[in-house]
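sry for the spam today, last one i promise. struct tokens for design, 199 residues
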């Protein structure tokens, strides 16, 4: 699970690295930074594949609008919404044309929620995420997210000696994890534009 938002060579070019001696360290940094960004976006992961979400509607606005755990949703693949009765365990498939609209970037909106949600949970099956290349890099990611990854990488790389990040080891991985908990302000502003509530 997990991948990178930026490939190795793009990151090296961004900070002006020509040698290959630190490739493993750079790749490790890119992996941790990429997955930190994905978590900040409020999704489970970006890996492409079949996914199932279960929602327990309560009275209020969230009876109508639900955020899926993954995006972008592949609208060319089957999308199934069912309601399941708590007491009788009766499963009913919902007619999508009548009751809901699914947005590519992971929002499920019901038009008449009170007609179908009484004492029921919602089960959603769909396909979502980004395909990855042979180097574990997500394809067709928005340019803004790639740039955020590069900025964050640049910040950590330029202060790696102060942080004690000079080669890959178990201790360094822990240091990298700590480093990726502190989000640079310029990176935070870019990520904010792509967070779930902004789609």
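last one done:
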């Amino acid at each position: 699970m997990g991948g990178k938002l930026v490939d190795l060579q793009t990151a090296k070019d961004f900070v002006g690295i020509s040698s290959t001696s630190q490739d493993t360290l750079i790749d490790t940094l890119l992996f941790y930074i990429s997955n930190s960004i994905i978590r900040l976006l409020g999704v489970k992961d970006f890996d492409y594949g079949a996914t199932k979400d279960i929602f327990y509607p309560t009275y209020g606005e969230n009876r109508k609008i639900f955020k899926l755990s993954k995006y972008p949703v592949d609208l060319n693949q089957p999308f199934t919404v069912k309601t399941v009765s708590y007491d009788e365990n009766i499963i009913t498939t919902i007619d999508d044309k009548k009751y809901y609209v699914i947005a590519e970037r992971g929002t499920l909106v019901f038009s008449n929620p009170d007609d179908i949600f009484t004492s029921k949970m919602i089960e959603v099956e769909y396909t979502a995420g980004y395909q990855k290349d042979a180097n574990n890099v997500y394809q067709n990611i928005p340019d803004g997210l790639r740039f955020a990854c590069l900025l964050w990488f640049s910040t950590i790389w330029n202060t790696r000696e102060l942080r004690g990040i000079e080669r890959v080891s178990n201790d360094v991985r822990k240091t990298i994890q700590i480093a990726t908990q502190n989000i640079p302000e310029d990176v935070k502003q870019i990520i904010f534009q792509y967070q779930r509530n902004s789609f």
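The chain has seven helices and seven strands. ok im logging off now
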